[in-house]
Give the backbone structure.
Amino acid sequence: MDLRSRYLGLELASPLVASASPLTADIETLKRLEQAGAAAVVLPSLFEEQIEHDSVDLHDTLELGAHSFGEALTYFPEMDDYNTGPGRYVEHVAAAKQALSIPVIASINGVTPGGWVRYAELLQEAGADAIELNVYAVETDAYASAASVEDRTLRLVSRVRGAVTVPLAVKVGPYYTAFANVAQRLADARADGLVLFNRFLQPDIDLETLSVKPELHLSSRDELRLPLRWIAILTGRVPISLAATSGAQTADDVVKLVLAGADAVMIASELLRRGPDLLTELTTGVSGWLEEREYASLEQAKGSMSQAACGNAQAFERAQYVRTLVEYQSAGARGQAR
Ligand SMILES: Cc1cc2nc3c(=O)[nH]c(=O)nc-3n(C[C@H](O)[C@H](O)[C@H](O)COP(=O)(O)O)c2cc1C
């Protein structure tokens, strides 16, 4: 089965991409991911705070005694075990490129359009086939309006876009009031792709120690629905590549996302649980599904269940919503509610 998919203008052998995670921090594991069927890999992020921290360190060494750490930096953990720091990160990109023949996507993670953006250029020079810019932020300033937050993100994207010529994807969270408009404006700012969606870590409170517990739970399959819906909404409407991230575990999940219109399906949690061989199973499963239904290629199936064919997406969404509530109530009356 021809599973080829174009993502960010890159020709991928299939839509299966290993998402940014500790698995992609190690060259041997990257090779295993490629052998098992990863069509591209996203390296773990290099964080704005790390880059700023590095230059503050340098500044402190040059100007002994002058301390100018921003408040945020004092919260920032020692990161070198995760992605080795800015200098070695650039080396990791070069090493990954040398070890692999599939596209290598480097990831930078930040929110403000600062001097750190020049790292995108260094990653391109190191051989990155594309840059993924992760704009992970929880806005806590009660005076920062949605418009100002969106404008800041667009300025950041424009800065990174201006710094590199390789394709640029933007990984965003789902909490926008008018996400279709944000997607369109990111396309207008010449982002080549969107990665939907960032998972926000929801900290808990430890009642014994009365401290905040940041907890990372691997994703569950239910989380697939949010990217599935938004990819179905945006496909054919906003001229931009679309990658799904969050909750994909099985071949059926991959097929659903492709039918909605996904050009790439990124996987982290299930790869962490089951290891690279998962990708072989998914490749076989997706091929089998397409063959059984007599598709000639994955491209032929892509987007066939998107909302573009339905004239009024808003009416469609409302209709689905009302229908679901009504059907639940009827099932409840018959004692079948779940
Ligand atoms: C342990 C771990 C580390 C991650 N590190 C990064 C990272 O450095 N940069 C990034 O953009 N996403 C990172 N992610 C998010 C994943 O790339 C992915 O988007 C998210 O986990 C949802 O996909 P999944 O449901 O397949 O896990 C990380 C996820 C996990 C579980």
Notes: Confidence is low (pLDDT under 50) at residues 58-69.
